Amino acid sequence: MRAPKETFSYPYPHPAVTTDVVVFTIRDERLSILLVKRANPPHQGEWALPGGFLAIDEDLDACAARELREETGISGVYLEQLYTFGATHRDPRERVISVTYYALVPQDALATPRAASDAADVGWHPFEKLPDLAFDHADIIAMAHQRLVAKLDYSTIAFQFMPEVFTLSELQCVYEVLLNQSLDKRNFRKRILSLELIEETGKLRRSGKHRPAREYRVKHPKRVEIIK
Amino acid sequence: MRAPKETFSYPYPHPAVTTDVVVFTIRDERLSILLVKRANPPHQGEWALPGGFLAIDEDLDACAARELREETGISGVYLEQLYTFGATHRDPRERVISVTYYALVPQDALATPRAASDAADVGWHPFEKLPDLAFDHADIIAMAHQRLVAKLDYSTIAFQFMPEVFTLSELQCVYEVLLNQSLDKRNFRKRILSLELIEETGKLRRSGKHRPAREYRVKHPKRVEIIK
DNA sequence: CCAAAAGTGTTCACCGTACACCCATGA
DNA sequence: TCATGGGTGTACGGTGAACACTTTTGG
To answer: Distance in angstroms, CA of B56 to C1' of D23?
Structure first.
């Protein structure tokens, strides 16, 4: 029940508000999304986006970050508001407005997220073969993917998928997965280096039997810079 | 009071949900925004964005369109969701989540919008000299303006400001106002015509003492096309 | 010495930009 | 005939795309 205060309160029924998060990462050279299997009705046993109800004294961004942490153990990652979904019958229980976010997780971050109490299971699913999803979560994912790909063109958002140090080949692989096409190695390196956004660590990555690759890092990790 | 149903309802306090709309147009070669003067507390007498509370069985888009129509008499215009603002203390009455939209109104559309019952006044204000605004509406406008300008680059959104028939000079004027810089006439015409999005009506606009200008119209008004 | 990934320059086509003059009309 | 906005083409530079071979390492 809403806590009555002395101040005016809008006297009509209020909808519930949730945040839901589309968590992207690159695993095994595939774009993947983190889903939780619902432990409770509605849609019990179906896969869904991590998310949950907004606390009455909690900022929206904080709610998204909290739900992500509670349901998957992930925190400290890039998180941006996506869109707000509010079709009248998207939740069978009651009217629910979902403020959706998307998150980008570096490749190396905890490979096996932990499941929370209200989730029967948590796991990464390749974007190309997602299971059936609860509610309108398939629509949310579609919009998040569209936004992600669009942002590759005019931002440096792809760096959010990279661990602290990485090689240019690894970065190129991320772009190729996201754009779903192969890129020319020389043009790619020229373009990335011309941004003057990353620098060599000075070390080499010996990753097997072949020629070692130079390691790079982002110069100013705090800023998420926008090109131009 | 929320109508209790037989179905489960999340047993914690729900926030109120509103939609607010940033209405842009071009008037007298200036980018302008439609504001309403609040008739009731809080922020009584201050200027604010048109908007209001979401009905429990109403889609978000419908709510934005309805509030716009009720408070200003404007309907049938381009309307797109912008962002959702939900800082905990943005409304002194209670917790309010605002799903914001922006609308683009053609130049010729009703110059003097009518004021609704809960507004003391309605009027257009040049973007460059806005009054102090209620709540966090200045932030909302800032974000809407940023989005609008960004979209000029990769969409044909500017056509939403044009009446059914218009001249290339008028269109160029709109771009100049939005970008806040003058453009080369020949390059502008070349670029616009190469989109193959508009066609001549065949008529001439005699608008005074000088050479008449050719009139154009959008070929397929239904579609809001994205370049590329 | 062989396999496999790392690393490196040049050429060309296209597009955005800069730039100046004549035309049609009403007064 | 003059003032005013309408209408038109070319030349240049920069950027993105295509393209193949050498280097370094481990086995």
So the answer is: 68
Nucleotides of C under 7 A from a protein CB: 3-10, 16-20, 23-27
Cα–Cα distances (Å) from A223 to A157, A160, A170, A227, B35, in that order, read: 11, 11, 21, 12, 35
Nearest chain A Cα to B62, which residue? A87
Per residue in A164-207, pLDDT (tens digit) is 999 999 999 999 999 999 999 999 999 999 999 999 999 999 98
Q: List the B176 CA – D2 C1' distance (angstroms).
A: 29
The closest alpha carbon to B108, from B170, B155, B66, B199, belongs to B170
- Nucleotide closest in space to B215 (CA vs C1'): D6
Q: Does B4 touch chain A (CB under 8 A)?
A: no
How many CB atoms are located within 10 Å of the residue B175 CB?
Answer: 17
What is the distance of C-alpha A133 from the center of its chain? Answer: 17
Dist CA A124 CA A113 (whole Å)? 9
Contact status, residue B113 vs residue B72, Cβ threshold 8 Å = yes
Do A25 and A66 touch, CB atoms closer than 8 A?
no
Share above pLDDT 70 across residues of chain A, in percent, rounded to a whole number: 89
The DSSP 8-state label assigned to residue B155 in this structure reads: B
Distance CA B107, CA B159 (A): 10
Residues 170 through 199 of chain B touching chain A, CB cutoff 8 Å:
none
Does B82 touch chain A if contact means CB atoms closer than 8 Å? Answer: no
The answer to whether residue A38 scores a pLDDT higher than 80 is yes
Tell me the pLDDT band of A1, cut-offs 50, 70 and 90.
very low
Give chain A's domains with CATH numbers. 16-151 (3.90.79.10), 163-223 (1.10.10.10)
Determine whether the distance from the CB of B185 to the nearest atom of strand D is below 7 Å: yes
**A98 in Cβ contact with A85 (< 8 Å):** yes
Distance from residue B121 (CA) to nucleotide C19 (C1'), in Å?
49
Express each pLDDT in B85-138 by its tens digit. Answer: 999 999 999 999 999 999 999 987 665 666 666 777 999 999 999 999 999 999
Interface test with B, best of A44, A54, A66, A84 (most B CBs within 10 A): A84
Whole-structure pTM value: 0.93
